[in-house]
Amino acid sequence: MVAGTTSDAGKSVVTAGICRWLWRRGVKVAPFKAQNMSNNSAVVVDGQGRGGEIGRAQALQAVAAGLEPQIRFNPVLLKPGSDQTSQVVLLGEAVGSIDAANFRQLKETMSAAAFDAFDELRREFDVVVCEGAGSPAEINLRENDYVNMGLARHAQMPVVVVGDIDRGGVFASLFGTVALLEPADQELVAGFVINKFRGSRELLEPGLQMLGRLTGRPTYGVLPFDVDLWLDAEDALAYGRVLGRPAAPIGEEWLRVAVVRLPHISNATDAEALASEPGVAVRLTVEPGELAEADLVVLPGTKSTVDDLEWLRRNGLADAIVEHAKRGKPVLGICGGFQMLSRRIHDEIESGKGEVDGMGLLPVEVSFQRNKTLTRPQGSALGAPVHGYEIHHGQVVWRDSDVPGLIRLPDGTQEGAVVGGVFGTHWHGAFESDEFRRRFLTLAAGISGRHGFKVAAATNFAALRTATVDRLGDLIEEHVDTEALWRVIEQGPPPGLPFIPPGAP
């Protein structure tokens, strides 16, 4: 198990890196996360063509392990819709919502499903690399835990704790994480990995030695900060953040893309495909002024379409988007963002607020249905093949017959809409189709007057994602004592690890 001192400590990337390292050694390895809390999900299609959802991190870890993603890799996915409730996706299927009132009741069902899925994987694979959630030292959640030390105890598996040194206080965090665990949990903590280190290793060494003396546990490695690891980084969607390191433009001009960082943003990884192109600068923002300055505005997916639409209006962002479109600049809405651009939204399912006016930029109406659409469709758009995936309750129930479709499915039905420079689609992942992405960006640049912008001819998004998991494997091999890690995988945590009472030393 790869646990962490905090969220975003690096559990996901370390888990993926270990999977890649083991896969390179010829080990039959699978990733696993008992419960993920994220609105960034991927659609997995089983052998019977049925769709289900898992966290995107586990989908990337599956790629690192040389596997097609499976629902069992993330049996419980919680998708926050507010500060108080989350949608529960159990074994890929949305089964209801969880809040403080029904937490204990549902937790028993979720833990049973998670343990069963893990036990199946353990029988089928040589190694299962499990990612924890949050921190194992969240002592308020330890009772009946099945995600961190509860899972480790269930399997008697060794635990490596990852700490993010970039945040500061990493030694206190690592020590305190172990010290807050009860004795039987501490016995499973084999050692540590420090993540996102910048600077001289010599200056860090005294701290590593003292941590070892205080805890009786080694630090297996120190991973450097790597600015190229930005794909599928679901916990790093910060305001004002520029995605990736945009390469210099091929032509004479940049294309500036502003992605609205919605409160309940989901699958913002769609923007990463746009950011992979040279000369495309993609920024996540909540500032109306940055939308006004952009060439292309993107409204991404959201788990709470109506609530986030109200937030856009309160903060002046909805007016800025409408004004952007009126000035003839392109606007793109994806999934929930597409729904916000409609004339009207009927929602008794997600928000329960009934009929709500959309921004009116696309002549369609959307109605939320109880059953969620989960598919991985293929089609064509702008004269190029395109594939994607759909995750949404909202359905287009009316459209102006004169509105052309953005994406045409093989059966001839139309999905999405485009009017002038305003585009909308329910398809996530469409911009991972290289030729379609290039044609769309060329079209958007022309609409915005960026005639000096040119797309590259050879950007391959799938290859970039593969390079990411290869780099993760490289980091593990180069900066972690893999022989010691292999012994822990084979033999479990070393016997006789000391107990650290709270308040020690």
UniProtKB/TrEMBL annotation:
Record's PROSITE patterns? Answer: GATASE_COBBQ (PS51274), GATASE_TYPE_1 (PS51273)
Q: Name one Pfam family in it.
A: CbiA
Where would I find the CobB/CobQ-like glutamine amidotransferase domain in this sequence? 256-436
Q: Recorded GO terms, molecular function?
A: ABC-type vitamin B12 transporter activity; catalytic activity
Q: Which CDD domains match?
A: CobQ_N, GATase1_CobQ
Keyword entries, A-Z: Cobalamin biosynthesis, Glutamine amidotransferase
* Residue ranges of every copy of the CobQ/CobB/MinD/ParA nucleotide binding domain listed in the record: 1-230
Q: Which domain of life is it from?
A: Bacteria
Pathway(s) of this molecule: Cofactor biosynthesis; adenosylcobalamin biosynthesis
GO annotation terms (biological process): cobalamin biosynthetic process
- Note whether tRNA processing occurs among the keywords: no
Q: Where is the active site?
A: C335, H428
Which HAMAP family has this protein been placed in? CobQ
Task: Please give the function described in this protein's UniProt entry.
Answer: Catalyzes amidations at positions B, D, E, and G on adenosylcobyrinic A,C-diamide. NH(2) groups are provided by glutamine, and one molecule of ATP is hydrogenolyzed for each amidation.
- Family per similarity comment: Belongs to the CobB/CobQ family. CobQ subfamily.
Name assigned to this protein: Cobyric acid synthase
Q: Which organism is it from?
A: Rhizocola hellebori
Question: Gene of origin?
Answer: cobQ
